[in-house]
TrEMBL record:
Belongs to the membrane fusion protein (MFP) (TC 8.A.1) family. The keyword Signal applies. Residues 55-131 form the Lipoyl-binding domain. Keywords: Signal. PANTHER family: MULTIDRUG RESISTANCE PROTEIN MDTA. The keyword Metal-binding does not apply. This is RND family efflux transporter, MFP subunit. InterPro entries: Biotin_lipoyl (IPR000089), RND_pump_MFP (IPR006143), Single_hybrid_motif (IPR011053), YknX-like_C (IPR058637). Residues 1-18 form the signal peptide.
Length: 286
């Protein structure tokens, strides 16, 4: 009798557990996971692959302030950073041959002035320089294979301290320097005087063009186990699309695959998706 009672109790317990499992599965079906994603529209066109060149800024021109004879600096009319015009008096030097007045040979800004009144100055090195900071020069060095990307008067975009400028190519070296690289110079307008000498300049130069291609944000590309793919939104689901990369840049990538112009490709949230995952587009870009 006791054995029969134990058997009946076990059967009842199994039935309760089975019912609970069925309820859990039913609840699971009802609570289908919806992943929030951000998307951007796929476009077609030409992708320009740009090469970044790094250089330094310098005044477009510097004119040394020279002395005919050494002597004592008795009067100094300027200081570093001061603007002068041609023929302005800069200093008076007492020499063995008498007083010598030093005048500005051109308009510009006084720089590299290290002497003070009463100091002895030499004619073996400039007293100062007059620099043109209204126009700044960008100095780059490039490999021989890159020279064909430039022609004089070409204009490219240069970024200096997160500000973009139009940089015009003014000089292309025909001989390499000591490092085996060729000098290339460009100039920019510095009317607001935000650019100082010695700042880093990054110039973008078009290197290659991929014509008539499908373009997606580089952030949309997923590379997993040797497979490259993206997720495209169709009927509120993320559909996995295998793609092949033709050219890639930091922001945009040219691809090949079954992806149509105007499709919405996932750019944020794709790493948690699987094929046909249900999604909620929380931000849609163009």
């Amino acid at each position: 009798m006791r054995k029969m009672l134990v058997s009946i109790t076990a059967i009842a317990l199994i039935g309760v557990l089975a019912a609970c499992n069925q309820n859990d599965e039913s609840d699971g079906d009802k609570k289908e996971t919806v992943t929030p994603v951000e998307t951007v529209e796929v476009t077609t066109g030409d992708l320009v692959v740009e090469k970044s060149l790094y250089g330094r800024t310098a005044p477009a021109s510097t004119t040394p302030v020279t002395l005919q004879n050494p002597g004592e600096l008795t009067e100094l009319e300027v200081e570093n950073g001061e603007m002068v015009e041609e023929d302005d008096l800069i200093a008076t030097i007492q020499t063995a041959r008498g007083n010598q007045n030093i005048y500005a040979s051109k308009d510009g800004e006084i720089a590299n002035l290290n002497a003070e009144e009463g100091a002895m100055v030499s004619n073996s090195e400039p007293l100062a320089v007059i620099a043109d900071f209204d126009t700044m020069k960008l100095n780059f060095t490039v490999a021989a294979g890159t020279l064909d990307l430039f022609e004089k008067e070409d204009t490219f975009t240069a970024s200096i301290d997160d500000i973009e400028y139009d940089a015009e190519i003014t000089s292309i070296g025909s001989m390499p320097d000591d490092t085996g690289l060729y000098p290339v110079e460009a100039t920019i307008e510095n009317k607001d005087e935000a650019v100082l000498a010695g700042m880093v300049a990054v110039m973008k130069v078009p290197e290659k063009r991929v014509k008539d291609t499908v373009i997606v944000p580089t952030a949309a590309i997923v590379d997993e186990s040797g497979e490259t793919f993206i997720y495209v939104i169709e009927d509120e689901k993320a559909i996995k699309k295998e793609v092949w990369i033709k050219e890639s840049q930091s922001n945009e990538t040219a691809i090949e695959g079954e992806v149509n112009d105007g499709a919405q490709v996932v750019t944020n949230g794709q790493l948690t998706l699987t094929d046909e995952s249900k999604v909620n587009v929380v931000k849609e870009g163009e």
